[in-house]
Write a structure and sequence with these properties.
The structure holds two protein chains of two kinds. Chain A has two domains: 219 residues, P-loop containing nucleotide triphosphate hydrolases (Rossmann fold, 3-Layer(aba) Sandwich), CATH 3.40.50.300; 96 residues, Alpha-Beta Plaits (2-Layer Sandwich). Helices cover 36% and strands 29% of the residues of chain A. Chain A contains twelve helices and 14 strands. In chain A, the strands form three sheets. In chain A, strands 6-7-8-3-9-10 form a six-stranded mixed β-sheet, with helices on both faces. In chain A, strands 2-1-4-5 form a four-stranded antiparallel β-sheet. A four-stranded antiparallel β-sheet of chain A has the order 12-13-11-14, with helices on both faces. In chain A, helix 3 packs parallel to helix 5 and helix 4 runs antiparallel to helix 5. By secondary structure, chain B is mainly alpha-helical. A four-stranded mixed β-sheet of chain B has the order 2-1-3-4. In chain B, helix 12 packs antiparallel against helix 15, helix 12 packs parallel to helix 16 and helix 15 packs antiparallel against helix 16. The model of chain B has no long low-confidence stretch (mean pLDDT 85). The chains are: A alpha/beta, B mainly alpha. Chains A and B meet through helix 2 and helix 3 of A and helix 1 and helix 10 of B.
Chain lengths: 321, 399
């Protein structure tokens, strides 16, 4: 479906003679029917990647094909088969839901009975039936996202690119939105979604972790978690800050990450817990509990980012090999 | 291609339909403007306020004041004696009088008749009448001055004739006789194109020209700038549409509205101000279409360099001041410095103004207007090429 080879995009500012490398050395293949998550913090290069794939941003170097069409030379062909949802609400706030959808249908030449049928079907799917005459401006943030998704689906695109579709949306609406995406995935659509949220990444069949314009790791969420070396221990203690300081210097400890009132301690082996407990009590930290925990994607991600920075930004696989 | 252009056009009209206030303003604003300007400027400048300070207080000085008051231009407001009594110096009194201290509103003209005016006139000397004109309003100042000079000149002539007749022992001529003698050589004036020299006949065609100008510029700039402001432009780009189709799609509503306005204004001019199109209406409408294209290009160019509608509005306001200056509406281009006369050629509205006046009032055709048409064509090509280039570049930054 998508083949990306050594893709790179550099933004140059004409005025300040400054340049920013948004994406570099990106090589990736995505198969038809995947629900692929592009995961990374703000500024990782997710949006730039998606816009290049959508054919609205030219790469500085490298190449990519979508459905066999070159993203530079055959951008128009890609657009015919593409549903794209920008991070910012891309529909017209002063038009009603129906008017917005009709405009998109006009453009994609979805006409006559087929149009009404398709709109009915999609509105059932996204639960927007009661709001057809409402101006887009007056919809809630979550409904706007659903409307944008509906609009991206009217012409039955082969590929759906969603740029942070749930940013700024409440948890319930987020869940609803992801239920829709999961259904789309189940029905065989190819979906690429970018997200800064790890819980959303867990719902993808494959994730690519991006950081600083590079793809660090790309695999299934389970495999990515397994790439985390050693084991994870969840620590509850009276003084987590002190515990973190102490543990960081221990040889058996690979990484320490605070999550609220729990400290995730990544150790070389589960058996290290006795040594850790001893070291903590020596330092005067009262341990409430120290248990093995299943690794989470977030822990893996943070670990990779730290490794990545320490290894001068070489991809994780390269370092391991 | 055509259907995609129409899709964009239909959507843009829908935006206008949803914004009723804007719609009403866009359609009827121009017509209201035309009516206001036409009615306000159609009237003659008259009944200008005149103040008098009569130091002589004689029969002759009273006759002069009556003669001034009898003109339609000047209207004796009241004696200025009070103001002068209140102040020690003449300068202070004048300052007070012309800055609102005089009965609430300033006089346009102050007439001062010196002491001994009658006597010196009788003695064959040449007394002076001091006229102080309020130049803050240049049009009324000029009119008041012209009227006063006229009256004083004739008055002096009548007085002198009477004195001379008395000296020679002849019967005194009547004022009417003197005036007739003064008009010994009669000019026979023919005014062409605006036979009554009606001011409305000058201002309303200019307004008609401005209507097309501002509507084309604003609608084009706003329709494109709003897409950029709302972030919907990106959505247009990911849809199968070429840049030229987006631009043309946005040009259609602007042309429709501009054209509808222009025709409405032409009808109003004919019905309300009795100003008909003397030349070929068809030629006028075709050239209007050409001019629309030039201004639409500029409107899109404005939208390309601005990120929001407000930014576009500010740029357009700035442009409008310059454009209107060079249009020759307020100041004839012929009386501008040479360099500005040359520059004026690069402003499309200058040529459009000449074309409109030419066809509307002078009934001339392309035989006369071809230089303007050539200029407009050249400017249109350059401007629209620049617009397309800018559009591609903006896309290039995104692409």
């Amino acid at each position: 479906m998508i083949h990306i080879n050594q893709l790179e995009r550099i933004f140059r500012s004409r005025l300040r003679r400054r340049s920013v490398t948004a994406v570099q050395d990106l090589t990736l293949s995505i198969e038809p029917g995947e629900l692929f998550g592009l995961v990374g913090p703000d500024g990782a290069g997710k949006t730039t990647t998606l816009r290049m794939l959508a054919g609205i941003l030219k790469p500085t170097s490298g190449e990519a094909t979508v459905n066999g069409h070159d993203i530079v030379k055959e951008a128009e062909a890609i657009k015919q088969e593409l549903g794209y949802m920008a991070q910012q609400f891309g529909l017209y706030p002063d038009l009603t839901v129906d008017e917005n959808l009709n405009f998109i249908c006009d453009v994609f030449d979805v006409v006559g009975d087929a149009r009404e049928q398709r709109i009915q079907e999609l509105l059932d799917f996204t639960n927007l039936h009661d709001f057809r005459q409402r101006r887009a401006r007056q919809l809630s943030g979550g409904m706007q996202k659903k409307l944008a998704l509906t609009a991206a689906l009217v012409h039955r695109p082969k590929l759906l690119l969603l740029d942070e579709p749930t940013t700024g949306v409440d948890p319930v609406a987020r869940r609803e939105f992801w239920d829709i995406l999961t259904e789309l995935h189940a029905s065989g659509s190819t979906v690429i979604v970018s997200t800064p949220y790890m819980d959303e990444a867990e719902r993808c069949n494959r994730v690519g972790l991006m950081y600083n314009g590079r793809l660090m790791v790309c695999d299934t969420p389970g495999a990515v978690k397994r790439m985390l070396p050693g084991a994870v221990l969840a620590l509850r203690a009276d003084n987590l800050a002190a515990a973190e300081r102490v543990l960081k210097d221990m040889q058996q400890v690979i990484d320490v990450q605070p999550y609220g009132d729990v400290l995730s301690v990544i150790v070389t082996d589960h058996g290290d817990s006795a040594a850790i407990e001893a070291r903590l009590s020596e330092a005067g930290v009262q341990v409430e509990s120290l248990r093995p925990a299943p690794p989470r994607l977030e822990e893996a991600f943070i670990y990779f980012v730290r490794q990545y920075a320490a290894n001068n930004h070489r991809p994780i696989e390269e370092v391991r090999a | 291609m055509l259907s995609r252009i129409l899709n964009i056009a239909r959507k843009d009209l829908l935006h206008l339909w949803h914004n009723r206030l804007l719609l009403v303003m866009v359609i009827f604003g121009a017509a209201c403007e035309l009516l206001l300007v036409g009615l306000a400027t159609g009237a003659e400048v008259d009944d200008l306020k005149m103040a008098v300070l009569d130091h002589d207080d004689s029969l002759t000085s009273q006759q002069l004041i009556d003669a001034l008051d009898a003109t339609s231009t000047l209207n004796l407001d009241d004696d200025a004696v009070d103001v002068f009594d209140e102040h020690n110096s003449r300068d202070a009194a004048l300052d007070d009088m012309f800055t609102g201290g005089f009965f609430g509103s300033d006089p346009v003209l102050l007439v001062e008749i010196p002491d001994g005016f009658e006597d010196s006139l009788k003695a064959g000397k040449q007394p002076t009448i001091k006229l102080t004109v309020n130049g803050a309003s240049s049009v009324s100042a000029r009119e008041a001055r012209r009227a006063a000079e006229d009256v004083i000149y004739t008055f002096g002539a009548v007085q002198t004739s009477e004195r001379l007749a008395a000296e020679l022992g002849l019967p005194a001529p009547t004022a009417a006789q003197v005036k007739q003698e003064l008009d010994a050589v009669q000019p026979d004036i023919t005014v062409r194109f605006n036979e009554e020299l009606d001011r409305a006949a000058y201002t309303t065609p200019s307004e008609a020209a401005f209507v097309l100008y501002i509507i084309a510029l604003m609608v084009a700039a706003f329709m494109l700038a709003r897409e950029r402001e709302y972030g919907t432009f990106e959505q247009l780009l990911v849809m199968p549409m070429r840049p030229i189709e987006i631009i043309l799609g946005k040009a259609v509503p602007a042309m429709l509205i501009g054209y509808a306005n222009f025709i409405l204004v032409l009808i109003l001019m004919n019905v309300v101000f009795d100003i008909a199109v003397r030349g070929s209406l068809l030629l006028l409408l075709i050239l209007a279409m050409g001019y629309l294209f030039v201004e639409l290009g500029r409107g899109f160019l404005v939208a390309m360099v601005s990120r929001t509608q407000n930014q576009a509005l500010l740029i357009i306001m700035l442009m409008a001041f310059i454009d209107i200056t060079f249009s020759g509406y307020a100041v004839p281009v012929e009386s501008m410095p040479d360099i500005m006369q040359v520059l004026s050629n690069f402003f499309p509205i200058r040529h459009w103004m000449i074309i409109l006046r030419g066809i509307l009032q002078k009934d001339v055709g392309l035989g006369v207007l071809w230089p303007q048409l050539a200029w407009l064509t050249a400017l249109g090509l350059v401007i629209n090429a620049a617009t397309l280039w800018f559009f591609r570049r903006t896309l290039g930054e995104q692409r």
